[in-house]
Amino acid sequence: KGWLPENIRRAVARARIIHAHGALPFIPHTHGTLWEFIDPQSYDFWMKLSLNMVRRCDGLYRLEGESEGADMEVALAHTLGMPVWFEHQGDGEGSSFKEWIQECARRVES
Question: Which has the closest alpha carbon to 88: 14, 1, 28?
Answer without folding.
Answer: 14
